[in-house]
Amino acid sequence: QKRKVCANLTLQHHMLEPVQRIPRYELLLKDYVRKLPPESPDRGDAEKALEMIFMVAKHSNAAIAEMERLQNLWAVYQRLGLEDDIVDPSNELIKEGPIQKLSIRTNSTSEKYLFLFNNMLLYCVPKVIQVGAEFQVHLRIDVEGMKVRELNDTQFPHTFLVSGKQRTLELQAR
């Protein structure tokens, strides 16, 4: 990258070039087909080329989106301490965020954190000493068989119950 022929550009910049060419080719071909006379002998081949480059762009965008999804998923797994039983590339993170856990016995609330995946809900506790993991998984509820019921409690607004096979949680949203 220090050579003159590389124009002082980084390796990452050069690796983006092929990805950036695809949309340029698509724009070029669209413009070419638009300006091509309808009776031109090249019209059929140009339209086929445009269709092919469109499919390549679609595939490239899908691959990039999948890579970003996997990177985001890996970041979540790292925040959870890379627990073996939840690390699975087929998981999809749907939503995550803080939540209040209501305790009926002590009539108090405590800050917890939820991760909702396509197949499970992870009920987590923030770690006080953050060496590696940010959260500790306290409960895993499989989405299959999970029940969610809203409560109409005037003392605690925005409360709901999440029931799994093992346990029921009373939670309060902000």
TrEMBL record:
Which residues belong to any copy of the DH domain? 1-63
Transmembrane residue ranges: none
Record-level Gene Ontology MF annotations: guanyl-nucleotide exchange factor activity
One Gene Ontology BP term is:
filopodium assembly
Please state every residue range assigned to the domain named PH: 92-174
Q: Name one GO cellular component term.
A: cytoplasm
InterPro entries assigned to the protein according to its UniProt record, in alphabetical order: DBL_dom_sf, DH_dom, FYVE_RhoGEF_PH, PH-like_dom_sf, PH_domain, SOS1_NGEF_PH
What's the protein called, per UniProt? FGD2 protein
Species for this entry: Atlantisia rogersi (Inaccessible Island rail)
Q: What is the lineage of its organism?
A: Eukaryota, Metazoa, Chordata, Craniata, Vertebrata
